[in-house]
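Researcher: Sequence of 4-deoxy-L-threo-5-hexosulose-uronate ketol-isomerase follows. Predict its structure.
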Amino acid sequence: MIMNQRYAQSPKEVATLGTAELRASFLLEDLMQLGQFNFTYSHYDRAITGSVVPVDKPLELPGYENLRSDFFLQRRELGIINVGGAGTVNIDGTVYEVNKLDAVYVGKGSVSVVFSSNVATDPAKFFLYSVPAHKEYPHQLIKKENAIPTTIGSKDTANERTIYKYIHLEGAKSCQLVMGLTVLSTGCVWNTMPAHVHDRRMESYFYFDVPAGQVVFHLMGQPQETRHVVVQNHQAIISPPWSIHSGGGTSNYGFIWAMAGENLVYSDMDAVAINELR
Ligand SMILES: O=C(O)C(=O)C[C@H](O)C(=O)CO
Ligand SMILES: [Zn+2]
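Model: Prediction complete. Tokens:
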């Protein structure tokens, strides 16, 4: 089996892309399909962004020819967040109950990872993000209730939002994976505004709980050369290290952020003043 692949592009090249080319390069539209895995391998930090939705039978993480490994996690670690109904993740025989917005860290070397839904009519929807790893860290279930929330922004500027950090320097341990999620308050639509870049890390943004008929205008590009991609519910954006990643929605919503690169420090960001954006 071969997984989708996206090459890395330079800021200069991205500045010339039209809507369709931009979407083909950075938007993942095939996530959360019932009864299957979907993965895309990005050449930015070799991060794999994907999903699995088990319905009436458990689904085991398969191997892929692109990885040239004996099994998926032979040289990789994996972060999981469930955005659907209750489910389980079985890692080499240890079973974790994973409710909506709970996360699991799966360490390098795990041979069998099996995903199940508790109720087929309300299936678990697992967002998956995997990056190369050099060392085995213990598997860990991180309940949403135990991720200390931080509320930032303000209702006056329509950007009040609560950030839940799961896998990072002060949370669940990993080699290079940093992951969590952000929920916008009712009436607030702007994520990550003011925006930032972090040349040391790529990032994937996966949008969830976008109400039917609503969209998010995801902003990307260098701060002085911005572009937008219109994103629907359960779609993701691959964000290059040099790119801002921010968005304005037509309603409030949530998004998972997942990063890989130089360090595990969540706050390692270079902020961009709003009036410097172009
Ligand atoms: O709402 C925000 O601001 C975020 O959630 C920012 C992301 O966590 C991020 O981009 C981390 O680098
Ligand atoms: Zn970021």
